[in-house]
Amino acid sequence: MNPPEDDMDEDDVDLEDDGPEPPAFEVDVSDSQAHVAIDRDAARALVERVLRGEGVTSATISLAFVDDPTIHRINRDHLDHDEPTDVVTFALSDDGDDRLSGELVVSAETARRVAAEVGAEPWNEVALYVVHGLLHLCGCDDLDEASAAEMRRREDAAMARVGLANPFRAARRPS
């Protein structure tokens, strides 16, 4: 026995169910270090506010807060720089993708040390590293003097948007 025919066209039926839409911003936070207390909710809010300020409407971001030996290994293995650094950014989306996707590895140990050197709050230094990495994901670089100046301007604006002082302004330091 066949089901009764109705007046629906095949075009009226959505046969693909992709499931629910993902949230506009998905931020995964991991924290394997003991140098700076990380408020995961504050870190997620920072990412969303900075990206919205940069015009991003949809993103999946992974944040990993690590110590210097860990970021040193990542920096050496992926960028051929044999030293610890403040943040390493991995873009996972391509130009033209609807959703920005990336991973940031942040050295909270470096942030604590630098914050002490410049008289800043450690969280502000960590936040600056997150902002810097997010700006890289948004296409900003700092490879020459002009682009570094633009990066600093955008860092200042992003830190101001989230109500944090930019510790970079507290002291001159190499970029």
Topology:
Elements: E1 25-31, H1 40-53, E2 59-66, H2 68-79, E3 87-91, E4 100-107, H3 108-118, H4 122-137, H5 145-161
Helix pairs in contact: 1-4, 3-4, 4-5
Estimated helix fraction: 40-55%
Q: Radius of gyration in whole Å, from Cα?
A: 21 Å
**Main beta-sheet strand count, sense and barrel state:** 4 strands, mixed
Strand and helix order: EHEHEEHHH
Number of domains: 1
Mind telling me the CATH class? Alpha Beta
Individual helix count: 5
Would you kindly provide a written description of the structure presented here, covering whatever features stand out?
The chain has 175 residues and is α/β, with parallel strands linked by helices. It has a single domain, classed as Collagenase (Catalytic Domain) (3-Layer(aba) Sandwich), CATH 3.40.390. It is built from five helices and four strands; from the N terminus they run βαβαββααα. Strands 1-2-4-3 form a four-stranded mixed sheet. Helix 3 crosses helix 4. The protein is globular.
How would you briefly describe this protein structure?
The protein has helices spanning 40-53, 68-79, 108-118, 122-137, 145-161, and strands at 25-31, 59-66, 87-91, 100-107. With 175 residues, it is an alpha/beta fold.
Keywords:
5 helices; alpha/beta; 175 residues; 4 strands; Collagenase (Catalytic Domain); 4-stranded mixed β-sheet
